[in-house]
């Protein structure tokens, strides 16, 4: 429960892509012996989200501690996954934090900062790094329909955020997380090299 006595924000991990440049679905890639999908679920749960939903597509996945939401339209891009995830949230869900499976340096500390901003009154909040908005993103329930309406192709919440800058609370997450993503085998090798250090 949050400070307001209502339910905490849900967590939504978008994990449906096939990883075309990587050569396999990113959700199943392992870093330090842990699948990226499990890592993402743990990050959202540890940060304070409940429940946690995972949108799947290219790979059939089972995840402990999360509800898997299949997206039959995953080939059309991330927008369809965001729409599927928002549609699957519980009716009383007050807000959701959206994260991407291919950003393993996003941490529970970044999620917790977004929840702190939410508890202080923010209805839309975005983690920033070097002042630039990236992920994760928190969206209040009253904006779910508008966000879903702007999610198409490979655009998720970005269209809504750009159209409504006055609603957005920026939450600096420098020093506790990083938005680096794994897109190519080279990216993965670099991540693994840093994990081994």
Structural features, described:
The chain has 197 residues and is α/β, with parallel strands linked by helices. 30% of the residues lie in helices and 22% in strands. It has one domain: Alpha-Beta Complex (Spore Coat Polysaccharide Biosynthesis Protein SpsA, Chain A), CATH 3.90.550. The chain has helices spanning 36-47, 78-87, 108-119, 144-150, 158-163, 185-196; strands at residues 10-14, 30-31, 34-35, 52-56, 67-70, 95-100, 124-129, 132-140, 168-172. The strands form two sheets. A seven-stranded mixed beta sheet has the order 5-4-1-6-8-7-9, with helices on both faces. It has a two-stranded antiparallel sheet with strand order 2-3. A hairpin with a 2-residue loop joins strand 7 and strand 8. Helix 1 packs parallel to helix 3 (108-119) and helix 2 packs antiparallel against helix 4. It starts with 9 loop residues before the first strand and ends with a helix. The relative contact order is 0.18.
């Amino acid at each position: 429960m949050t400070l307001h006595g209502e339910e905490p924000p849900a967590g939504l991990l978008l994990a449906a892509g096939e990883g075309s440049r990587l050569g396999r679905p990113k959700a199943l890639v392992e870093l330090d012996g842990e699948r990226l999908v499990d890592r993402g679920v743990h990050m959202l749960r540890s940060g304070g989200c409940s429940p946690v939903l995972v949108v799947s597509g290219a790979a059939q996945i089972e995840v402990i501690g999360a509800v898997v939401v299949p997206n039959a339209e995953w080939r059309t891009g991330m927008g369809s996954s965001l729409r599927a995830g928002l549609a699957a949230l519980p009716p009383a869900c007050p807000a959701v934090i959206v994260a991407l499976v291919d950003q393993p340096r996003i941490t529970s500390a970044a999620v917790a900062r977004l929840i702190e901003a939410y508890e202080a009154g923010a209805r839309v909040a975005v983690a920033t790094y070097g002042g630039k908005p990236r992920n994760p993103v928190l969206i209040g329930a009253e904006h779910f329909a508008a966000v879903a309406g702007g999610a198409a192709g490979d655009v998720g919440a970005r269209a809504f955020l750009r159209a409504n800058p006055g609603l957005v609370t920026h939450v600096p997450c420098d020093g506790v997380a990083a938005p680096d993503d794994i897109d190519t085998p080279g990216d993965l090798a670099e991540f693994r090299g840093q994990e081994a250090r």
